[in-house]
Design goal:
The protein has four helices and no strands. By secondary structure, the chain is an all-alpha fold.
Length: 112
């Protein structure tokens, strides 16, 4: 699931920035990808909690922080762009996607 998370967050980052610099609005496909990304990280979180319940532990406790951040970054970005100029929406999500790609790499390096 690491590769899927890294790929989808990198795609969101690049897609969002390209959309912003082309001065285009966010498309339905872009927004659907954001929803799928959130669902992926929530699913990973649930799997992580189940693994923890079965006795598996991450190498570093920072893994928990990265996991929580990966779940809350997109809702925070959404609350930031809600009710504001829609022109900035792809920029905010693009930056959030690249930030999440970095978090995904860090979460992988601190995991089991």
């Amino acid at each position: 699931m690491f590769r899927a998370g890294l790929l989808i967050t990198a795609v969101i980052g690049v897609w969002g920035l390209v959309t912003y610099f082309r001065k285009q609005p966010s498309s339905g496909g872009f927004r659907a990808t954001l929803v799928l990304t959130e669902a992926l990280f929530v699913t990973q979180g649930v799997i992580g909690v189940l693994m923890f319940a079965n006795g598996r532990r991450p190498h570093d406790n920072l893994h928990w922080l990265y996991g929580v951040l990966l779940v809350i970054v997109l809702p925070i970005a959404m609350s930031y762009v809600s009710g504001r100029e829609s022109r900035r929406e792809p920029l905010v999500y693009g930056i959030a996607g690249l930030f999440m790609a970095g978090l995904t790499i860090r979460a992988f390096t601190t995991g089991a």
